[in-house]
Amino acid sequence: MTHTLRLHILGSGSKGNCELIEGPEGIIMVDNGFSRREVLRRMAELELEASRVVALIVTHEHSDHVKGLPVWCKSFPGALLASSGTPQARATLEGLPFTEFEPGACLDIAGIEVQTFSTSHDVVNPIGLRFSCRNDSIGIMTDTGTATEAALQALGDVRILALESNHDVPMLRTGSYPRYLQDRIISERGHLSNAQAAEAAHSLVGPHTEQLVAMHISQENNRPSLAVRALAEALGAELDNELGSSATLRRPDPLPSLHIRAAGQNRPISIW
Fold it and tell me: Cα(260)–Cα(233) distance, rounded to whole angstroms?
């Protein structure tokens, strides 16, 4: 099968988030939690041109997802989209030219069908996204305390699945975070743990899924290797090395292998 979509992750974590979905007719940016200079630097590292970004979708209003928007939008001619109520939930977003939609809406952007769905986070109206184009698909779900029923319906068997695997519960509970913050993270409106991500992946990964990326990994309460190991164990994949930095599930022909890896805060990656 020809792959028509590519996922570029400029950074994923509590200090900044930005993903790019590249299709034949342009690029859709998801969130912008970095300075304009940093976004352009990371795009250049991946050999991407800012002029190809045709739309920007905001998943929710937390600063690590939107703090770069006011400056970025000063010279951005493309569409700016968010779920209803999100632009009004943060003062820095209120004056920006958003088009709002309800979770569950299906958007058509640059030849890509974008299916939105509700997630569960402590914000006004959080969403996740599925991108489809010519029998190819990418799914993104981060910043959610549970894998919602809407998410399970939307993200099944996507080719590339970018799934939050935020924390290791024992690390979180024995770490330096105060108890109230631990409770917020672990709640149904917080973030998915490694174990929850593994459970969700077991339901979502299908025969066409080729790439599984652990997202929004906490630098304080998790390790990339722990996230990869949890996902690999749930899916029966084998670690590629002793470090546990990646894993592979080899399937019988004609099914593709499944590759598991972790996205980071500081190093952009491209996946296709």
Answer: 11
What radius of gyration, in Å, describes the C-alpha atoms of the chain?
Answer: 17
Q: CA 266, CA 171: separation in Å to the nearest integer?
A: 22
DSSP string for residues in the chain: -----EEEEEE-STT--EEEEEETTEEEEE---S-HHHHHHHHHHTT--GGGEEEEEES---HHHHTTHHHHGGG--SEEEEETTTGGGSGGGTTS-PEEE-TT-EEEETTEEEEEEE---SSSS-EEEEEEETTEEEEEE-S-SS--HHHHHHSTT-SEEEEE--B-HHHHHHSSS-HHHHHHHHSTTS--BHHHHHHHHHHH--TT--EEEEES--TTT--HHHHHHHHHHHHT-EESSTT-SEEEE---TTSPPEEEEE--SS--EEE-
Compute the distance between CA of residue 8 and CA of residue 155 in angstroms, rounded to an integer: 18
Of 167, 115, 118, 122, whose CA–CA distance to 138 is shortest? 115
- For the stretch 198-238, pLDDT in tens is 999 999 999 999 999 999 999 999 999 999 999 999 999 99
User: Nearest 5°: phi and psi at 165?
Assistant: -140, 75
How do residues 28-87 score in pLDDT, each as one tens digit?
A: 999 999 999 999 999 999 999 999 999 999 999 999 999 999 999 999 999 999 999 999
Is this structure's pTM higher than 0.85? yes
